[in-house]
Amino acid sequence: MVNVGVGQGSALSPILSTLYLSPLIYILEKRFKNFNLPISILSFVDDGLFIAQNKSFSSSNSQLFCSYNILSNLLNSFGLIVEHSKTEIFHFSRSHGLFNPPPLDLSPLGGSILRPKDSWRYLGFIFNRKLSFHKHIDFYANKAISMVKCMRLLGNSSRGINPLQKHLLYRCCALPIALYGFQLWFYNKAPMSYHMKILNKMQRRAATWILGAFKMSPFEGIKALAGLMPIRFHLQKISKRSLIHPFKLPDNHILKNLLNDDPPSTKSPNSHNIGSLTNRQKSLIKGHLPDAHTKTLGIFPSFSPISPSFSPGNCLMDIFPNRFSFISVNKKVENCNYIRGRELDDMVLCCSSDSQTALVITDASIKNDIATSISHIHSYNRPLIKTVHHASFVTSMEAELFAIRCGINQACAVNNVSKIIVVTDSIHAAKKIFDSRSHPHQIHSTAILSELRSFFSSNESNIIEFWECPSKLRWRLHADVDKDSKSFSISPSYLTKISWDYCKKIDCDDSLNLWKMTFQASDGKGKNFLDLLDDDSNIIEPHYAKGGPWLQAFGHSNSLCARVVRAITNHTPIGEYRLRFFPGMDFACPCSNYPIETRRHILHECRRFNGYWNPRRDSLSHFVMFLTANPNAFAFASS
Question: How far apart are CA 193 and CA 621, in angstroms?
Answer without folding.
Answer: 39
